[in-house]
Write a structure and sequence with these properties.
There is one protein chain. The chain is of the alpha/beta class. Helix content is 42%, strand content 19%. The protein folds into two domains: 133 residues, Rossmann fold (3-Layer(aba) Sandwich), CATH 3.40.50; 152 residues, NAD(P)-binding Rossmann-like Domain (Rossmann fold, 3-Layer(aba) Sandwich), CATH 3.40.50.720. The protein contains twelve helices and twelve strands. The strands form two sheets. A six-stranded mixed beta sheet has the order 2-1-3-5-6-4.
């Protein structure tokens, strides 16, 4: 009989998190018995002895970067992203990975979209954006536009440089990375100068409680064939409502949350889940979120 796994999600302040609901279901699907705790950890270093007694844990803000100096190993994807959200504990030693990028990729895939051979517009250049960008760059000949606020130009350029170096290290010579401000994108949209296969919002704009705002206008949305918003609360953000209004395929962020959690099981145990189970869990997690936060909100 499999030993009960001692698992957790850590953060500070952690407040309400969907991780226990999602992880309980995933452990049930895998048939692995577990105890999954929510640990509010203000002092990461002081908590290390407790963390080393776990079998595995997930990480949320503000510890995704702060955990790195305490790891005994880190995989290439997490090192490139500078972010860890999944840790496997082996004999008290901590090994870090990130499931954010693969989670986004799988979420798109089970909703009938792909990041391969696509013209992609990425909004943001923070941790989630980096994770998604490097997964995109794992595919040869990728075409990616990174959108930035005027104040984030240098950060966006740094991400673009890192992606280019990564692509060249893989022997990719035909990739294309463009860095544009939101103002430039708006002007481009007014002139209908370019279309994108997929828009990915990796910013927090439109997230509860600041609903009713979108990172880009309906004009930019209309230049896209599909929109994926990594924000999962509310279920339908203002961005997704603009997409629906424009007749553009709209994919919400709960899929990424569920699929990155599922990919953490691949890291921990090599577990693979069926698409139908993931889609059902996405639907159930959305219902649970709306039960907790109230279902009358909209973007």
């Amino acid at each position: 009989m499999t030993r009960v796994q001692n698992a957790a999600v850590i953060g500070h302040p952690i407040g309400h998190t969907m991780s226990p609901f999602i992880q309980h279901r995933l452990f049930e699907l895998s048939g692995i018995p577990m105890e999954y705790k929510v640990l509010d950890i203000p002092d990461l270093e002081a908590a290390l002895p407790e963390l080393k007694k776990l079998d595995c844990f997930n990480i949320t803000i503000p510890h995704k970067n702060a955990i790195i100096p305490y790891l005994n190993g880190i995989d290439d994807r997490a090192r490139l992203c500078g972010s860890v959200n999944t840790v496997k504990v082996v004999d008290g030693r901590l090994y870090g990975s990130t499931s954010d990028g693969p989670g986004a990729s799988v979420a798109l895939s089970i909703h009938g979209e792909s990041i391969r051979d696509k013209e992609i517009l990425l909004l943001g250049n923070g941790g989630a954006a980096r994770a998604i960008a490097f997964v995109i760059a794992e595919h040869p000949n990728f075409h990616l536009t990174i959108a930035h606020r005027d104040s984030s130009y240098e950060k966006a350029m740094k991400l673009a440089d890192s992606l280019a170096a990564f692509a060249r290290s893989r022997g990719d010579k035909d990739f294309l990375i463009t860095v544009q401000s939101y103002g430039e994108l708006e002007a481009e949209a007014r002139g209908r100068l370019k279309r994108y296969d997929l828009l990915v919002n990796a910013t927090s704009v439109g997230m509860y409680p600041n609903v009713g705002v979108s990172p880009v206008s309906e004009g930019i949305v209309s230049c896209c064939n599909a929109v994926f918003d990594a924000v999962y609360n509310p279920r339908k953000t203002k961005l997704l409502l603009l997409a629906e209004k424009a007749g553009v395929k709209a994919i919400g962020g709960m899929g990424m949350l569920v699929c990155q959690a599922a990919y953490s099981h691949h890291i921990w145990y090599g577990t693979e889940f069926q698409n139908k189970d993931l889609l059902q869990l996405i639907e159930d997690a959305n219902a649970e979120m709306e039960r907790i936060f109230g279902g009358n909100r909209h973007g």
